[in-house]
Amino acid sequence: MDSEQRRRRKQHGRIYRPACAKLLLVRSVTLCLSFLVFLLFISSDRSPIRRDGSFRPVLRTSTMSLWPAFLTGGGGGTGISQYQNLVVEGRVLLPDHLVLIVSNKLTPPTDNLDCVYYDNIMLERVVLKPVISVDEYHHQSKSIVRCHLPPLNFSASVNLRGRGRSGDGVVERREWLLRLNQSVVPSWDKVVYEAVLDSNGDTSSVVVFAKGLNLRPHREADARKFRCHFSLTNFDQGSFVFKTRAIAAAQEVVRCLLPPSILNNLDKAKDIRVSVSHVDYKVEGAGDAPLPSVARVQIINSHELKSSTGKYELCACTMMWNQASFLREWIIYHAWLGIERWFIYDNNSDDEAQEVIDELNLHKYNITRHAWPWVKAQEAGFSHCALRAKHECRWLGFFDVDEFFYFQLRRGRYTAGPNSLRALVMKYSDSPRIGELRTVCHSYGPSGLTSPLSQGVTVSYTCRLEAPERHKSVVRPELLHATLLNAVHHFKLRDGYKYLNLRESKVVVNHYKYQVWDSFQAKFFRRVSTYVTDWKEDQNTGSRDRAPGLGTEAIEPPDWRLRFCEVWDTGLKHFVMANFVDSTSGLLPWERSLA
Q1: What's the half-sphere exposure (Cβ side, CA atoms, 13 Å) at 233?
Q2: H or E segment to which residue 441 belongs
Q3: Stretch 141-170: mean pLDDT, rounded?
Q4: Which residues are 438's β-sheet partners?
Q5: Are 333 and 420 in contact (CB under 8 A)?
Q6: Measuring CA to CA, which residue among 480, 518, 514 is closest to residue 496?
Q7: In Å, how far are 70, 98, 116, 174, 583 from 131, measured between CA atoms?
Q8: Model confidence band, residue 171 (pLDDT cutoffs 50, 70, 90)
Q9: Would you call the peptide bond into 109 cis, given omega within 30 degrees of 0 as the criterion?
Q10: Around Cβ 33, how many Cβ atoms within 10 Å?
Q11: What's the chain's average pLDDT?
Q12: What one-character DSSP code corresponds to residue 321?
């Protein structure tokens, strides 16, 4: 009986097994095809994201989470093709926005470029937001893209997307790999952000700029406590293959030796990623991990520089935020006094600064605008500027766009003429000891005005404080200390060199510090110096960097127009009116178009 049942079961199995196999095959094929259709559906560009730039989360799976962005391809409309081969080399989370460093130069228009945000919890959720702004970076070879801060629970690993493409069109080739590695976007309080190759004949080193070193302000640090790390990888996360010791350090600057393989061929240094670590030099192998880094070694192109025998005698460097309205007066006036070359470090302006500079350059004013996206880093920016300028300039002045050199009256007569400032500094060019000239500043108040005059600050403000405040400096950049240590107003010099205080009776700087309220209140936005407290913070309220008695709120005092007025001084006003007014139109050169 049992054998008969077994025989029937075997026969039953032989009859139905082929049918079952065929059924399973059909089901498998159907499931595979359904899954592929599903992937194509969720990867399509059906997102109802609004074009007005507002955030609107959309539940979908980005193609970037399924395969590398460089496989998405796709053409596009006008202005889109420049986004196809870009690489986001680094990201830094600043207090009020996110900075993306992009490998290529982006040309206008860029209003069709979006920042792409990914949900930290559900990676398929994506938010788009138009970029805040785009800037040229590193001598126009790269770009900076500013994005809004990510929404709550969204990653700071923000990507870019060209608007108007048929597919996602995410522009970063490496994004797929970066997301697999879960790269960490550094915050501004702990990151290496710039690096410059400094070559002086037979000696070369790399100057690295970093937040998070926690060094004391205005003091030289012990260089033995630091190491520089060099990496050949292009990824945000990668191992450092070379390590060298630091030879100088102060504030946010560490200067290191170059690895021998790079030292023998300096061209290899370009774009190598570099970081800094703190070490215990007394204990072998003890120390911290390298800081997160977005810095790649920058080489100042020698073909753009003047030869050592043809340097400009006098240049100027400044850092500014939204001060385009002062630029024309400041540059035209000081060019008349003899400044030949200008380095403008723009700290995230959103006004017409570039347009003003372009107009002035059409008239041979020789201005370079350098995007400096790093907030609270003025001292580091001035150190960076000194490195750039030393190959071009014998003397380099550091002063703000509301500060004007003024040669005072002597025996009732003006002693200044064209190129007076240049002639003054040239007297000390061959000095064996003098490396810096310092000039005292007089601070001017609103002078009774409630709105500025069209003639500019030199004519508008004529009442000042009696006692001078601080000073401004003009330096010989090749004589600066290896640390590039500065307090904004002056630099530390190499051993054996000293500064000279110019006589107040000869020349002063008029600082139009306390202007009409509408102009002055912009100072509450943010102070650019690393070691100066922002005015909205209730700290150091008695500091000379603040307006005495003003407090922490941008509220106009009733008597503001009368403050900071102890001495009426119309000297520079009369000098400007006597030397700059057009005899035909009666206008000053910064009042009219240069076209």
Answers
A1: 14
A2: strand 434-443
A3: 80
A4: 473, 501
A5: no
A6: 480
A7: 21, 10, 9, 20, 47
A8: very low
A9: yes
A10: 10
A11: 80
A12: S
Give the residue-averaged pLDDT of 146-150: 95
DSSP secondary structure, 152-206, as one string: TTB-S--EEEETT-SS--B--TTHHHHHHHTPPPPBTTSEEEEEEEEEETTEEEE
- Asked whether the beta carbons of 255 and 208 are under 8 A apart, the reply is yes
Q: How far, in Å, CA of 187 to CA of 189, rounded?
A: 6
Report DSSP letters for 350-390, one per residue.
-SSHHHHHHHHHTTT--EEEEE---TT-HHHHHHHHHHHHT
Name residues whose C-beta falls within 8 Å of residue 536's C-beta, 6 or more positions apart in sequence.
Answer: 524, 552, 553, 554
| Cα–Cα distance for residue pair 248/256, rounded to 1 Å | 7
Q: What is the pTM of this model?
A: 0.81
Reference 178, options 270, 68, 260, 100; nearest CA is 68
pLDDT digits (tens, 9 = 90+) for 356-404: 999 999 999 999 999 999 998 999 999 999 999 999 999 999 999 999 9
Q: Return the HEC string of 33-79.
A: HHHHHHHHHHCCCCCCCCCCCCCCCEECCCHHHCCCHHHCCCCCCCC
Find, among 90, 89, 95, 100, the residue nearest to 129 by Cα.
Answer: 100
Report d(CA 66, CA 43) in Å as an integer.
9
Contact yes or no for 353/266 (Cβ under 8 A): no
Q: What is the DSSP-derived secondary structure letter of residue 503?
A: P
Element containing residue 508 per DSSP (H, E):
strand 507-511
> What CA–CA distances, in Å, run from 118 to 27, 160, 237?
35, 11, 19
CA distance 122 to 299: 42
Distance spanning both ends of the chain, measured CA to CA: 113
φ, ψ of residue 24 in degrees (nearest 5): -60, -40
pLDDT tens, position by position, 301-335: 644 555 545 899 999 999 999 999 999 999 999 99
Q: What is the distance between the alpha carbons of residues 328 and 206, in angstroms, rounded to a whole number?
A: 35
Q: What is the pLDDT of residues 220-233, one digit of tens each?
A: 999 999 999 998 76
Phi-psi group of 373: left, alpha or beta (phi > 0 → left; psi -120 to 50 → alpha; rest → beta)? alpha
Percent of the chain with pLDDT over 70: 73
- Reading phi first (left if > 0) and then psi (alpha if -120 to 50, else beta), residue 221 is in beta
Q: Which two tokens stand for residue 373?
A: 């996206």
Quick one: tokens of 336?
Answer: 């008349």
